[in-house]
Design goal:
By secondary structure, the protein is α+β, with helices and mostly antiparallel strands. Helix content is 42%, strand content 31%. 26% of the residues are buried.
Length: 167
């Protein structure tokens, strides 16, 4: 009788250990998925900034120098990626991007070296830092407590221009 009780206790203990192991594996899988999603949010933010830099490079370049002529930088407003595929499961996908450290860059292939004689322009490369979050706050770089939250940061160099040279 005593041996049977000991065997049952050992089996119950092994069952509890197995249940805890499965729970930990499930949670780790959720953390990994949220982390991967946060990285893709940040990556999407870089892509959007590159697009805006190609379309309205002059605007953001001027705003960066207007904000601080010594260390030009520009921070975009907090943005949300569309998650219409599965809103309830994926969570809140937000990011914020800051462009800084401008430096002159060569024009991309297909452009003239420096524009025409009447309209001279240049290209700049900006360092773009993007913080992407899943169920978090990208401004404070904090993720909400719980299993389905993550924060990732991505840094990229983005070419802005053509930017008109005022002479």
């Amino acid at each position: 009788m005593v041996i049977a009780m000991m065997v049952l206790l050992v089996l119950a203990g092994l069952g509890l250990v197995a249940m805890r192991f499965v729970r930990m594996e499930t949670a780790a899988g959720g953390y990994s998925r949220s982390s991967r999603n946060a990285y893709h949010v940040a990556e999407g933010g870089v892509t959007r900034i590159a697009y805006l830099g190609a379309i309205e490079g002059q605007t953001f370049h001027n705003a960066a120098y207007l904000a601080n002529p010594v260390n030009p930088s520009f921070t975009f407003a907090k943005a949300t990626l569309d998650r219409s595929a599965d809103t309830a499961r994926v969570g809140r996908l937000e990011y914020i991007a800051t462009m800084s450290r401008p430096r002159l860059a060569a024009p991309p292939p297909g452009y003239q070296v420096a524009g025409g004689t009447s309209n001279r322009w240049a290209f700049y490369v900006y360092q773009v830092d993007v913080t992407g979050t899943v169920n978090g706050d990208p401004i404070t770089r904090q993720a909400d407590p719980g299993g389905a939250a993550a924060v990732k940061q991505v840094r990229a160099d983005v070419r802005f221009g053509p930017i008109t040279i005022n002479q």
